[in-house]
Each structure stands twice: as structure tokens, then as C-alpha cells.
Design goal:
Strand content of chain B: 5-15%
Helix content of chain C: 25-40%
Structural class of chain B: alpha+beta
Number of helices of chain C: 11
Order of helices and strands of chain C: HEEEEHEEHHEHHHEEEHEEEHHHE
Number of strands of chain C: 14
Number of strands of chain B: 12
Chains: A mainly alpha (362), B alpha+beta (500), C alpha/beta (364)
Shape of chain C: globular
Helix content of chain B: 40-55%
Distance between the termini of chain C: 90 Å
Shape of chain B: elongated
Number of helices of chain B: 15
Strand order of the largest sheet of chain B: 1-2-4-5-3
Strand content of chain C: 25-35%
Oligomer: heterotrimer
């Protein structure tokens, strides 16, 4: 890996925004139903549990980066050698591309259901990928900037949930611990899918100034995400009755329906439009990660690989037309992400440690 | 810098213009004069060469000729003792003749000393007197503005910064106009890298004419494809002096009453210098008003189009009646209606700007009132939109920097198109593009969006709001000045209790 | 080159990427809607939309259609409409009482499913026919606004408990709670009134609370910010006055419900705190003693009426107060079936009113 010039690096505290931004995406709009399916109104505890696991994983990742030579690609190289390592890298290219597809498709579905039923998936995806290209080609600094604005500007949306309070009954979450541990754990696993994306640190790491000290910020990013999710979960549990929530696909959006301001009668349209700002860093970070791995393992110029990936993304998107497929897509990318994060990465760390010891002896 | 001049000289040496060839070229002009004289006592013959239009005849008549004709004038070197003028140079370099003569020097040659020339500064300084600022007018505060003359402008600045660190580097740019450009900074304060960037870029300029500082702005800005100006221009010596002290760099161009300032940030374009003359609370309020005005100006017509074309649900019931009745007889869809009105406003502005002041005012009134009322009555536009467009235009004029105001007015057109395309979603989408663009912009290599991004809390003290002076103990961080501390912040004064 | 391609794409987008437009003045924007049951399997739907006239007046237009289901009604209505009929600004949905007795979930579901409809839509029951109410002419701001203002002001300032589409669905889906909706009645061609509250078992209307009892009903189910009750005092020994009436306006009220589930039968106690002022008084002199008397009488009124109402709820097997819901929050492994079958019908109620009159106006 050629060294990254200092001027292309970002301040460590921006890691906070990068991690937080990629974790918050289309998932926030409808995760409530998924956790309430098993854990009922104890689901918010599962959110906390899932949040705790992300902190542990982040520690593992930083350990991996420390031992594995700076990023995922070099860790793979240490663990599996040149060719097998490249194969493993390619798996991650596919995974990040899949993330882009999932995020974008889910958002387009929301727009189609809530705003414009006849919005063309192809054209919107095309426009969005041009935008993403424009930003990603500005480098990590720009991506961090999008993550920053994508976190700061829409943060006012949290306040709008206060409009639900007159219609909320916070006793709904009582009694606490009314579900079996098994149900809670299933919900925790489902929740952890929504939290995915923070593995992008594995590639962003070399671009951070004082990278070793950035873990603190990354952990704060995770903590903020968990807090936001817990708050939204509790607010929606108070706002909907349990069986009502089970019928509501996008609980967060449905909550906005109650918001009424003197100059705006209905808020969900503004919310969905604003969500574009939240989705953008998601897409940009994932796209950058995929293209960055491509750059590391192939001789292709990073700009070109973004083009290639964008074409693949737009092509795939056009084939996904109905609710069922979108659901499947979400499940698929969630499961893959879950196993990559919770199973593969700890194993990778072990292999890296072992291989390093073996090589030392040799 | 020094090497820069050397380069030019070697260029000219290559061509080797001889005295004779220059002379024949100059003699084609009617205002080129040669006069031959003989000293009464020594009998020395000499001649004066000059452009009558460039020199001050009085100087020659009263200061030069009397001493040369009547006193003991023998040699070119005697000039310095005989003539009461400071700037007299003697040279044997033929290549400077052209440049000197064209800069208002009078050349003196003697038959005796062949191939040696003396140049006497007899320039006739014509130009405006220092007057009031017109573009950046302020009610309180200094009332001086730059003029076209570089030396006058430098004088205005030197008066305000009487320290030896205040450095003025001069370069000549423009292959034909040979415009003098001064690069100003405080040595030991401004970041060397910034100074080098400007120096290098000025050197790299390859253009035949430089008529105004805006030429330089466009030639050396980081991204010339962007509609955003990336160097701040100011006609106020106080503002320029103030940013120099902050550690920024200023560029003055001879013949231009506007100085360029860099590195600058987006936020700075919305700060009027008058903000510093006012109490910090008032100033902060005005700044926020300006930020609001700009967002309003860009977004209001696109929001109108989006809401009326796609999102009738958003509109409050009470407003609905007003909107529907105002639009009932209008055959145009909201987007065409909005474009029509926006273009009308632009027409009025353009017509007003091109015409002489007095006629311009009339156009404004005629256009504003007559066209506005008539088009509403004719059912071409709705009166609601008319109000919005007029307000938006008004709001765009609150931007203190004229150049930025123009950009703001142009920005709303892409927003309008996207609003027509995808409604609110389109507006946010376009905003994302704008955000991405602004993030990529740099001013002399420094981030343009600073202190918003990269976020620097310290620099926010003088951005969207202005903190009191005693809180601003540091220079802006993004300038990377060599001395980042302006003054040591006031020691925690012991607070006195009531009646102590 | 790349620039040119992206410009081309942009132009292409502008030409083809458009989505369906809904230009404000080319729409018939429904503000109210009514459903009536005309025959066993035929629903008559009425859509009300305003037509704005140049001088600012609003003309009410209605369209009606009959069909076997609510969805088909929608289609038939659209066929009759000159401009697209859109539901995004719907304020009020009226249901005829016949329809309400048969079940309203179909309507509620279609409202909830449509993303363009807000959650604050007012659902109300029309005494008589919904179409009849919608065809009247009330106020200058259009019928839709009139009806929704009528109900909202009664909620905010009078004795109507708060309801809207979201709250109806919340109650409907919540275990241990049943929904309720306001009833409105056409008095004359330009007047409407709130005539009570309809009580639902699941989605079927089973009972009503008349307007006179709304004060007590709201005390039980909601917070009462403003609402008045007339206290009548009979003749007492040694009292010169014969028959005295005092109108007490509540300015603040809250209730606290406590369920004691260990006892058998389950004991439910209501603590009702109410602070009021006397607005009207027909007696001669309002002394401290008299005020105390009024407070006591009012407490008695509250206890009597509330117990009567609660008894009726038990009898009908409905729970608009949400006692079951409270029980659910307090108990792990709550069994809703057991609660509905045996515990709730046998529950005993106790009312503990706490009435205090703070002021009695500018004269004594």
C-alpha cells in the first residue's frame, strides 16, 4: 500500500460521523416492527444489546487493523497469502456493492410507496449514482463531509418526534422483561442487521490522522447510533399499540403523519425528502469502500472502478421491482453482513495473529 | 519574485530591440515628441523624448528645463544634482527605453554620451480622487474606497498597517497590458504556503490583458468552472488591512479599485465589514438575517413549484383557498409561471444595470409596478408568486458581496428544474449536489466551506455569528498563520459582587 | 467528453424522469368523506370537495356513488369527477350509524393504508346519514373545515374526549381498550351539533354516551381542560333559597386509575381530581359554606354518573377507559382472555372525587 499523503487524511473526530452516518440509513424508517416481532415491546432492550455487541466488534476491528498492517486488504494478505487474500477481498467488494444496492433500493421503495408511485427506479438510481460519483471522486475528505452534513443537518428530525408525545402512552413498554431470553436474542440478532456498515472502518483506517487514537470516536459514533435507535424505538412503542405496530411497515414515517405545523400540514413528505441526505453518506461510504478494495487488488483506476460498480448497481436495481424482492434483498445483505462481521472478522483476527507468529518462527 | 523579472528581461534580450528600431516604432504615434536643446553655458546638446499624453508638461517646463538650460550641465550624471526630482535613472540598457517611455518617463539623451540614457520621472498622475465606497457602503466606519491607482491604494493600506512586516511584492502580468500586480501580506504571519501558491499562480498566468482584479480572480481561482467566486473582492482599505492582519493575502491590481482577498470561505461572503463596527449582538443578528435571506432567496420559488406541482397535502387549508383562487385563471403550470417571473426579474435587473442611473431607476419602477400588476391582471402569473419572486430578488441583494449575489440568483434555476422533476425530493437532491460541490471547492488550496466543514469550532466565533472582540483571541485556524494567537485572552478578572 | 455525457443524462432525466404531477388547481381536493350503508351489501360513499370562487368564497360540491365495498366506491367516485379526486387533504370522515354498527375497520384500514392520508383525520359518526350532513352548507370556509373545526374545538375546549384516526386505530389494536368516536347530528341546514360519543366493541358501534354525560365520560377517559357541569342544589332545612343552580367550569382535571388485582373480584379505584371555577350562580349569595356544598354535590354527581357509565361498559363488555390496558402494563404474562371473560365483568369500581372550587367570579 502506498502511503496516503497527509493532506488527503481526515481528522480523527470525523470518524464519529462516518461510523454514525453509515449505521443510520433506511433501516431507521422501519426497524421497529422487526424487533417487536419477537421481543414485543421489550424490543428496546434488544436494541441496547445489539448496540453493545457493536462496541465489542469495533474493538476487535481496531485490533485487527493494528495487527493486520493497516487495512482489510493487508490483513487478508497476511492471513491468506496473495491469491487467496484477493479472493477474500473480492468477497468484500461484492458485499459493499450489495450494501449500496440494498440501501438505494430500500430508499427508492419508500419514495415510491409514500410519494411517487410512478418514480422510475432506473432514472432515480442513475441520478443518485451520478451524485454519489461526484462526491466519492472528491476522496475521503468529501465522504467524511457528506457524513458530517448527513448527520448534522437531518438531526433536527429527532425533534419532530416530540409531536407524537400528546398521543403517546409510555406505559406501553411496561412490564419490562416480559419475554423469554430466546426471543430477545433473536430480536437482538435482527437488530444487529440494522446496525451494519461500521465495518467500513476496515478500509477507512489508513486515511485517518492519528488512526490509533480514533477508536474513541468510533465507539462514540456507535454509542450515538444505539442511543438514537433506542429513543426512536421507545417513542414508537409508546405511539403505537403492539398489534398496530405489527401492521406498520415504516413506523417512523407513520409517526411523522401526526406532525402538524402552522405552515406545513403534513411532515412525512419533508422527512422522506430529507432522508435523501441520510442515504447519501450510506451510499457514498459503501461505494467508496468497494472501489477502494478494487483499487488495492486490481490495477484499475479508482474512478473507473466507481463507474463499473455504479453500472452494476443500477443494472441490479432495475431488476428488483416488487416488495418481496426488496425484502429478500434486505434479508440477504443483512445475513451476509451478520456473518461477515460477527463470525468472519473475529476468525480473521485469530488467523492473522497465528500467521504472524508462524512467520516469525520461520 | 526576483527571478521573475529576470525572466522577462532575458525574453526581451532575445529580441534585442535597438534604440533605432524603438524610435521608428514610437515615431508613428502622434503624441510622441522629441525636443532638442542646447545649454547656454556649456553648449552641451541634448534632447528630450516623451509622450505628451503621459507626462506632466509643467514638470519639464518648471523643474527640468530651467536647470538644464541655464545651469552648469555637462554630463548625464549631473542631472541628479541639477534637477529637483527624486526618480532619475541613468542606464545604458536600450531594452528598458520602451517600458520607461510608456510609463511616463522622459528620456534624456546627449550627443556626447552615446548609448546612455537618463530617465526622469515626469508622470502625469490622472485618475479619481479617493472617494466613498459605493459597493460596500457602510453607514458607520471609514468612508474611503480604493481607486484605480495602485500607488494610491498602497498608500491607503500602508497608512493603516505601519509595520515593516507589511510586504508588497510586485509582479507584472499580461503579455500586452503589462499590468502591475501587488501581492500583499504580513511577513512572519501569513502562511508561507499560501503566499507561494499565489506567487506561483500569478507567475503561471498567461493572458494578454488584465484590466481588473476580476480577471486575476478568474485566472487564478482554484476551480474556474464553479459559479462561486473563490477569492473575496473588496473596495474597502479597512477591510483589506483587517484581513491582512488576520493572516490572509491580498492582491491589488493596478487600474482596479477592488482588492482580492484569499484564502476565503463561503461564510465570509455573507459578512459585511460593517458587522465589525456594530455591537456583536446586532452584528450577529444581521448575519443570521443574511443567511436566512440567502436560503429564502434560493429556495422559495422552488418550494412553491414543488408544493403546487406535487405536494398539495402539505399546504395548510387556509392557504389553499388563497393559492387556488390566485392560480385559477392561469394557463401555465407552476414551473413556467415561476420561470416567467424569475426571468422578468432578471430582465429588470439587467436593464437597470445597463442603463444610466436615472433611467435605470425609472425602469425599475415601471417594470416592477406596471409589468407586475399587469401580468397578474392579465392572468399570466399569480399574485402569490409575484410576491415570492419579488421577495426572493430582494433577499438576494442582501448579500454584501456583489459577485456572490449574482451566484445566488443563478443557483435557483437548477433548484427550480429539480423541483419540477421530483418535487421536494428534487430540491433536497439538488441541495446534495450543491453541498458536494461546495465541499470540493477550495480557495488557494484551503477548504472553502470552513469552518462548517471541516468543522472547526474555534473559527465559528467569527462566522455565522460574531463573538465580541475579546473572545476572538485566535486567528482563523484554516489560514495556518505562523502566529495563531492575536492576543492573550483576558485573564479571568475577579468578578465584583454587587456594590463592591 | 465526460461532462458532455453527464449533461446529456441530465437532459434525458428532465425529459423522461418525471413523476406524476398533481397540480394544485387541477385537482378536486377532498376535504371530507362520508360512508352510509344503504342496503345489506351496498355502501354509499360521498366525497366533499371545495370549489374556490374568485372572490374568496367556497362552494361545497359533493359526489356520491354506491358500490358493494369502500374501494369500489372510490373508483366509481373517480369516474364521476371532472378532475382527479385526491384524498391527501382529507380532514373528516363521517360514518353513518348503520355503517358503524356493521363495522368500520374496512374504512379505517383503507385510510391507514393510503400513504397520502394524515393520521390526524377526524373520524366521526353521523347520526342519520353522513351524506345528508355533507350536503348541508355550513360556514364560509367550506363544510370540511367546518366539521373538523366543530369537533376540534369541542375536544379542546369542551367535553369531547380527543379522537382521531390514529387514536382510533391505537385503541382498536390495543389489548384491553376499546375505541370511541364522536357523534354529530344535523340540526338544521346550516347547523350541526355534537350529540354524543359512540362506543365500539372492536370495530362495531354498540352503545352511545349522550351529550349530557360527556362531562363525566371525559373525566374517565381523558384529561378535561375545560368543560362545565351544572350543579343543582335542592332545598335544605333553614335555607331561604329554594332551588339553586351553579355552573362549574373545570379548568384542570386529572384522573388516576389504580387496579388492585390481588383481590377477588378485582377492585378498580378512580381518583378524579378536578379544579373549577363558578361561572354562573342563580342563588342569592355565594358563601364559603355554599361553595363547600356545591363541591360536595359535584363530587356526588361525579361518583354517581361515573359508576353508572362504568357499569354500562361492563355490561356491554367494552372498555373505553382502558382498564385492561392498565392491568396489562402492571402484570407480567397478562392473559387478555381471562381478563375479558371473568375478571373485568366482575370488577368493582370505586370513585374518589376531589373537587375544589378555586374562584367564583368577580362578585360574591
Amino acid at each position: 500500500m502506498q502511503p496516503i499523503p497527509e493532506s488527503r487524511k481526515i481528522s480523527p473526530f470525523l470518524v464519529f460521523f462516518l461510523i454514525h452516518a453509515i449505521q443510520v440509513g433506511a433501516g431507521v424508517l422501519g426497524f421497529q416492527r422487526i424487533i417487536a416481532k419477537n421481543a414485543g415491546y421489550d424490543g428496546w432492550i434488544s436494541v441496547i444489546l445489539a448496540g453493545i455487541t457493536t462496541h465489542i466488534l469495533m474493538m476487535i476491528m481496531y485490533l485487527l487493523l493494528d495487527k493486520g498492517g493497516g487495512d482489510l486488504v493487508s490483513a487478508h494478505r497476511i492471513a491468506f497469502g496473495k491469491w487467496l487474500g484477493k479472493a477474500a477481498d473480492f468477497l468484500f467488494v461484492l458485499y459493499f456493492t450489495l450494501l449500496v444496492v440494498t440501501i438505494l433500493r430500500t430508499y427508492i421503495e419508500v419514495v415510491q410507496v409514500w410519494m411517487y408511485p410512478r418514480l422510475s427506479t432506473f432514472y432515480f438510481a442513475l441520478a443518485f449514482m451520478i451524485l454519489a460519483y461526484y462526491i466519492v471522486s472528491g476522496g475521503v475528505r468529501n465522504i467524511a463531509g457528506v457524513a458530517f452534513f448527513g448527520t448534522v443537518l437531518p438531526s433536527y428530525l429527532l425533534l419532530t418526534f416530540a409531536f407524537t408525545f400528546p398521543f403517546s402512552d409510555f406505559r406501553n413498554i411496561l412490564p419490562v422483561f416480559d419475554h423469554s431470553l430466546k426471543d430477545m436474542l433473536i430480536a437482538t440478532k435482527n437488530m444487529s442487521l440494522t446496525f451494519l456498515g461500521y465495518e467500513s472502518i476496515l478500509l477507512l483506517y489508513p486515511f485517518i490522522k492519528n488512526a490509533k487514537k480514533s477508536q474513541k470516536h468510533a465507539q462514540w459514533g456507535l454509542f450515538t447510533t444505539t442511543t438514537v435507535y433506542v429513543i426512536i424505538a421507545i417513542i414508537s412503542f409508546a405511539f403505537f399499540s403492539e398489534k398496530q405496530l405489527a401492521k406498520t411497515v415504516w413506523a417512523t414515517l407513520s409517526m411523522w403523519k401526526i406532525v402538524e405545523m402552522p405552515f406545513v400540514e403534513r411532515f412525512e413528505y419533508i422527512g422522506i425528502a430529507n432522508w435523501c441526505l441520510v442515504i447519501l453518506p450510506n451510499v457514498c461510504i459503501a461505494l467508496w469502500c468497494a472501489s477502494r478494495i478494487m483499487k488495492r487488488i486490481t490495477p484499475i483506476n479508482q474512478r473507473h472502478s466507481i463507474w463499473i460498480l455504479s453500472v452494476i448497481v443500477i443494472g441490479t436495481l432495475s431488476f428488483l421491482t416488487n416488495r418481496k424482492q426488496v425484502d429478500m434483498l434486505n434479508t440477504l445483505s443483512g445475513e451476509i453482513g451478520f456473518y461477515l462481521n460477527y463470525v468472519y472478522i473475529p476468525i480473521l483476527l485469530l488467523v492473522v495473529i497465528i500467521m504472524k507468529k508462524v512467520r516469525k518462527k520461520v | 519574485m526576483f527571478s521573475f523579472f529576470k525572466n522577462k528581461n532575458t525574453d526581451q534580450n532575445k529580441k534585442k530591440p535597438s534604440y533605432e528600431s524603438i524610435k521608428t516604432a514610437l515615431e508613428k504615434s502622434a503624441d510622441y515628441k522629441q525636443a532638442f536643446y542646447q545649454n547656454q553655458f556649456t553648449g552641451v546638446k541634448f534632447s528630450l523624448h516623451f509622450f505628451t499624453t503621459l507626462i506632466d508638461g509643467k514638470i519639464i517646463q518648471e523643474d527640468v528645463l530651467p536647470s538644464l538650460l541655464s545651469k552648469d550641465f555637462n554630463d548625464l550624471e549631473d542631472l541628479k544634482t541639477l534637477v529637483p526630482i527624486v526618480d532619475i535613472q541613468v542606464s545604458d540598457d536600450e531594452s528598458v527605453i520602451e517600458q520607461k517611455l510608456l510609463n511616463g518617463y522622459t528620456m534624456l539623451t546627449m550627443d556626447k554620451s552615446h548609448r546612455k540614457f537618463a530617465f526622469i520621472a515626469t508622470k502625469n498622475e490622472m485618475g479619481r480622487k479617493v472617494s466613498q465606497p459605493e459597493v460596500e457602503f457602510s453607514v458607520v466606519g471609514p468612508k474611503e474606497a480604493f481607486v484605480e491607482s495602485l500607488s494610491d491604494n498602497l498608500n491607503l493600506l500602508r497608512k493603516r498597517i505601519p509595520v515593516k512586516e507589511f510586504t508588497v511584492e510586485e509582479v507584472t502580468v499580461g503579455t500586452i497590458t503589462h499590468t502591475r500586480i501587488a501581492l500583499l501580506y504580513l511577513d512572519g504571519l501569513a502562511d508561507e504556503a499560501n503566499v507561494n501558491t499565489v506567487r506561483q499562480r500569478l507567475k503561471d498566468v498567461d493572458f494578454d490583458q488584465v484590466m481588473d482584479s476580476s480577471f486575476i480572480e478568474q485566472l487564478i481561482s482554484d476551480n474556474s468552472l464553479s459559479p462561486f467566486p473563490q477569492l473575496l473582492d473588496s473596495e474597502r482599505p479597512d477591510r483589506v488591512a483587517s484581513v491582512l492582519v488576520e493572516g490572509k493575502i491580498a492582491i491589488l491590481v493596478d487600474g482596479s479599485p477592488h482588492a482580492l482577498i484569499g484564502p476565503t470561505t463561503l461564510v465570509e461572503f455573507f459578512n459585511a465589514y460593517e458587522d465589525y463596527f456594530l455591537n456583536f449582538i446586532v452584528a450577529s443578528f444581521f448575519r443570521l438575517v443574511r443567511v436566512f435571506a440567502v436560503s429564502f432567496s434560493i429556495l422559495i420559488t422552488p418550494l412553491y413549484v414543488a408544493a403546487l406541482t406535487y405536494h398539495y397535502e402539505l399546504i395548510p387549508k387556509d392557504l389553499m383557498a388563497t393559492l387556488v383562487t390566485s392560480r385559477q385563471e392561469i394557463p401555465l403550470p407552476p414551473i413556467l409561471e415561476a420561470l416567467f417571473l424569475e426571468l422578468t426579474i432578471e430582465l429588470l435587473r439587467e436593464a437597470g444595470a445597463r442603463l444610466p442611473t436615472k433611467v435605470g431607476q425609472t425602469i425599475g419602477i415601471v417594470g416592477g409596478i406596471v409589468i407586475g400588476t399587469a401580468s397578474v391582471e392579465a392572468g399570466l402569473t399569480s399574485n402569490v408568486l409575484l410576491i415570492l419572486v419579488a421577495l426572493a430578488a430582494l433577499a438576494s441583494f442582501t448579500t454584501p458581496v456583489y459577485r456572490m449575489g449574482n451566484t445566488i440568483r443563478i443557483l435557483r434555476f437548477p433548484f427550480l428544474l429539480f423541483a419540477q422533476l421530483w418535487g421536494l425530493l428534487g430540491i433536497v437532491f439538488c441541495f446534495c449536489f450543491l453541498m458536494g460541490h461546495l465541499m470540493r471547492l477550495t480557495s488557494l488550496g484551503r477548504p472553502f466551506l470552513e469552518p462548517l466543514y471541516p468543522p472547526r469550532l474555534k473559527d465559528l466565533k467569527d462566522a455565522l455569528i460574531r463573538f465580541p472582540f475579546y473572545k476572538q483571541s485566535n486567528r482563523p485556524g484554516f489560514l495556518r498563520t505562523k502566529k495563531s494567537v492575536r492576543f492573550s485572552p483576558r485573564e479571568g478578572k475577579k468578578k465584583l459582587d454587587i456594590d463592591e | 467528453m465526460r461532462k458532455r455525457i453527464s449533461n446529456l443524462i441530465l437532459i434525458l432525466l428532465l425529459l423522461t424522469g418525471c413523476v406524476e404531477r398533481e397540480i394544485l388547481d387541477d385537482l378536486n381536493i377532498e376535504t371530507a368523506k362520508g360512508y352510509d350503508l344503504v342496503e345489506e351489501n351496498t355502501i354509499r360513499g360521498t366525497a366533499l370537495f371545495p370549489v374556490y370562487i374568485k372572490d374568496g368564497a367556497i362552494e361545497n360540491r359533493t359526489l356520491s356513488a354506491e358500490a358493494p365495498s369502500t374501494r369500489e366506491v372510490l373508483e366509481t367516485l373517480s369516474r364521476k369527477s371532472q378532475q382527479p379526486l385526491v384524498r391527501g387533504s382529507l380532514d373528516v370522515v363521517l360514518l353513518g350509524d348503520d355503517m358503524a354498527k356493521k363495522g368500520v375497520l374496512d374504512v379505517a384500514d383503507s385510510l391507514q393504508r393510503d400513504a397520502s392520508i394524515g393520521a390526524r383525520v377526524t373520524l366521526a359518526i353521523a347520526e342519520g346519514s353522513a351524506e345528508d350532513i355533507l350536503k348541508g352548507n355550513y360556514g364560509i370556509r367550506g363544510n370540511g373545515t367546518f366539521i373538523s373545526n366543530l369537533i376540534n374545538h369541542n375536544i379542546k375546549r369542551r367535553e369531547l374526549p380527543e379522537t382521531n384516526l390514529h387514536m382510533f386505530l391505537f385503541d382498536y389494536f390495543q389489548d384491553g381498550k376499546t375505541p370511541y368516536l364522536p357523534i354529530i347530528k344535523k340540526v338544521s341546514d346550516d347547523t350541526l351539533e355534537v350529540s354524543g360519543v359512540a362506543l365500539f366493541d372492536k370495530d362495531k358501534m354498540v352503545d352511545t354516551v349522550p351529550a349530557d354525560d360527556l362531562f363525566f365520560f371525559k373525566l374517565l377517559v381523558d384529561k378535561l381542560s375545560e368543560g362545565s357541569h351544572v350543579v343543582k342544589l335542592g332545598k335544605k332545612d333553614g335555607d331561604a333559597e329554594e332551588h339553586v343552580e351553579a355552573a362549574v367550569t373545570s379548568i384542570m382535571s386529572k384522573h388516576k386509575i389504580k387496579v388492585e388485582n390481588e383481590t377477588d373480584p378485582v377492585k378498580v379505584s378512580f381518583k378524579i381530581v378536578i379544579r373549577g371555577i363558578i361561572k354562573e350562580y342563580t342563588g342569592k349569595r355565594l358563601s364559603q359554606k355554599k361553595i363547600k356544598e356545591i363541591e360536595d354535590k359535584m363530587s356526588k354527581d361525579i361518583t354517581d354518573h361515573s359508576l353508572k357509565l362504568l357499569g354500562r361498559f361492563q355490561e356491554k363488555g367494552i372498555d373505553p377507559v382502558g382498564i385492561g390496558q392498565l392491568q396489562k402494563h402492571g402484570v407480567r404474562g397478562f392473559d387478555i382472555k381471562e381478563w375479558e371473560k371473568t375478571l373485568y365483568p366482575n370488577a368493582q369500581f370505586e370513585i374518589k372525587p376531589d373537587v375544589e372550587i378555586l374562584e367564583s367570579g368577580t362578585v360574591e
